[in-house]
Amino acid sequence: MAKVTIDGKTIEVPDGTSILQAARMIGPDVAPPTMCYHSKLKTSGGYCRTCLVEVTKGSDKDPRPMPKLVASCRTNVMDGMEVGNLTSPKVVEARKGVVEFLLLNHPLDCPICDQAGECHLQDLGYDHGSAKTRTDFERRTFEKISLGDKIQLHMTRCILCYRCVKVADQITDNRVHGVLNRGDHSEISTYIEKVIDNDFSGNMIDVCPVGALTDKTFRFKSRVWFTKPVCANRNCDKCSGKVHLWYKGEEVLRVTGRKDQWGEVEEFICNTCRYDKKKTSDWEIEGPAEVNRHSVISANHYQVLKKGSEFKLNDIKPLPITEGEGS
Amino acid sequence: MSEVKFSNDSLAVIEKIVARYPEGKHKSALLPVLHLAQAEFDGWLSPEAMDEVARVLNLKSIEVYEVASFYTMFNLSPVGKCLIEVCRTSSCWLKGANEIVEHIEKKLNIKDGETTPDGMFTLKTVECLGSCGTAPMMMIGAQFHENLTYDKVDSILETCKTEDKRKTYFDQVNIEHY
Amino acid sequence: MGKKLLLANDHVPGIKNYEVYRANGGYKSVEKAIKTMSPDAVVEEVKKSGLRGRGGAGFPTGMKWSFLAKPEGVARYIVCNADESEPGTFKDRYLMSRIPHILIEGMITSGFALGATAGYIYIRGEYFYIVSILEKAIEEAYQNGWLGKNILGSGFDYDLYVQVGAGAYICGEETALLESLEGKRGNPRIKPPFPAIAGLYGCPTVVNNVETIAAVVPIINEGGEAYAAVGIGKSAGTKLISASGHINKPGVYEIEMGITVEDFIYSDEYCGGIINGRKLKAVVAGGSSVPILPADKILTTPAGEKRLMSYESLSEGGFASGTMLGSGGFIVMDETTSIVQNLHTFARFYHHESCGQCSPCREGTGWMEKILHKILDGHGTMADIELLWEIQAKIEGNTICPLGDAAAWPVASAIRHFRSEFEEFVQNPTNLKKVRHYESVNQLVSA
Ligand SMILES: Cc1cc2nc3c(=O)[nH]c(=O)nc-3n(C[C@H](O)[C@H](O)[C@H](O)COP(=O)(O)O)c2cc1C
Ligand code: SF4
Ligand code: FES
Ligand code: FES
Prior knowledge:
B: about 180 residues; alpha+beta; 8 helices; C: alpha/beta; globular; binds flavin mononucleotide; binds iron/sulfur cluster; binds FE2/S2 (inorganic) cluster
């Protein structure tokens, strides 16, 4: 066991626990934000740098502070370690920088993005960003790519968290997409047009923290905050069958995996559950889902964001329900 | 295009390359084999060429695309017979690399990144090639040309018209010791 | 003349070939190590020598070797970093192309010390012509019993291979190099674990620069103490310096550490002074990644003493007024040089070479290049200079690998020491837009 203190709060955790996991055990107040880490995916994390923390004391044995901020998702605790997250001015500053970098080339299309209201980047910008991005350069753009009739790839929005690649690697046996090119030309792609088609491909959508991978069968049917998530399950021979059904009125618009309080999928689901079971009668309903992520279904939040920021969301009234392809 | 298949000679070389790595670590052969493919299939890596690499190394195609697109020496689109790569980083820039690039652009009537209409020359500016003490420099095929002057560039480009400069690269890739 | 340990036989005709190399004392270190020493004793000797990594970071080699994990029944590897892509650095190329056997010999002696089952030399793809030189040398070493099974009847089995890269500076970072050697994209790994515990194929691995490994040869031949006696303080031994830019005699020089910077730039033994008798303006002393220093600061330390070519002396003054020895890529700029334009070439380089894994480096390097471009185009503002400063500060220390720092430092130091030049570009763009050093390249060469 190791005792670790994060932002003044102490907890004892098993050896081999990451600083991030320990912080999450203490609670949301001290948990660093994450964009690329995903608890159900091996080797995830380390890329986005939003979870950087300051280790002010390495351990009881070696109390020296760590010279640089570390990625809490990929750094394990040591007995006696002391960590600063929100209480560390260095961390707050660095995180502002990271948010600015992540938004630098991110399009300003939240009003028409399917992920709006469920987007981790939106939350991040709101909670940890500075008032505006200071770039007047044209943002990087990519062509929209279809990955078959179920998944839409909107690379322009991607923050290169690598989660979808890890999903394909770790829960399917036929990965056909990956990260191509390098540096700021890196992109998620199949290189030559290919349909991503396997029983678990839909999970790529659920792990995408932004609106880069979206469910084509749901796109623009409704803004997220008009839909109501419900816990449901069914007997499935491929997966646990534990899902969230997203209702609008009586109609199931979308089926997704259940996400935990950190917005990470609890159990991956199969494409049959996701795409082919959209009738209430397919499911045993457990009750309303508790959705903790504060922006979900909260259009309000969305509007706060626009105030200080450069996001041009001038008339962000909830959009009318539109069918089919947007821009 | 005819079917993209490695020749038997190349397959024999690939077998030797794979033998350098421990059992089951044949993916290590990917970079050398991509070089080999580029040399065999016309100086660039078409999707078909990469699929062939995936086939012989028993990898997924996407693994090959991911890697090929990471490294600047792999051409993912066709290039001219004579690929001119001019270094433009600090030491070369201090010694007039920009002027060399402009000179070539004017002479061949193409811009950085373009190929002449006859498919003869492609001009590419690149980053430091480790020849900074003999700047300015350029690489054609696998050959370094150093201490460049306008005259020197002119005469080198002249020889490109009669000899296939890719050969230096192709030969290096196929060195007998493999 | 300073002592030469690596290039001592550089002038010997045919030293590239095995017979000549052997006749001039080649492969003695292998004989000595295998026949008369235990592997640990070889490591001990390297520790005593005070040798520090010549690839850029300057980490004590003996210490690095002693960290290597040695679990039973698990293969161990030694990997030579011949990726040499740091702008301004060309010493490894010089050494490998002229005296290839010293690297092969060093790889065998080091491999013996570490109990490695195999060694790989990872060389940048653009050095293809050196691949054949190395392959030939390796073949000769096999033929003469220095490689393969049961070397010198000792029971030590060891194979050596050359692996070629394909154009990526980042593959010089040791974990990116290992990824690349495993046939993957050159994305640096997130550490820990360090290669000494889990490196190539997950096995314990040591990665060392070409020059570091070559230096093992004189260390074993002459003893660690003798090596430590050369040089100055914690900068033991000799260092290969790649000298380029506006000097009369660019090239690779083996220097005894501790000579003065002034001597190195102006004496005829080394750089031979500035071209055309112009004045020295600035120096990048250790490859593009280290802070640039103006003439007065590179020649003298903050304490007012002459600055020396050594790890300690070059870094005296910290980032405020010092720099680093780095890879020994010594780029000299004369008074006509535009620091902002030069910086732009560095910024473009790091933008081009970022692997793209982590957001500060992926986004920040491109952003800095764009701002510099804007300033050079005459559209910059004073706020852009501040912004550049802030961006580099937000990249530094916050990335997966040190490429982020390497991209930040040149920007920070250029602004720190040459701020007025940035301001001039902003205020008076038309005057400065077309700065050129020389009317034409031909003129430069005849000069
Ligand atoms: C971006 C980057 C590029 C590097 N490039 C090289 C290189 O080209 N050659 C090299 O020997 N070391 C390079 N290094 C340093 C290596 O990571 C590593 O420290 C070195 O190979 C260790 O060997 P040494 O201790 O013998 O110097 C680079 C490091 C970074 C972060
Ligand atoms: S610092 Fe740059 S090069 Fe290094 S891992 Fe991050 S993106 Fe890649
Ligand atoms: S969540 Fe830790 S680096 Fe992205
Ligand atoms: S700067 Fe051009 S070869 Fe190094």
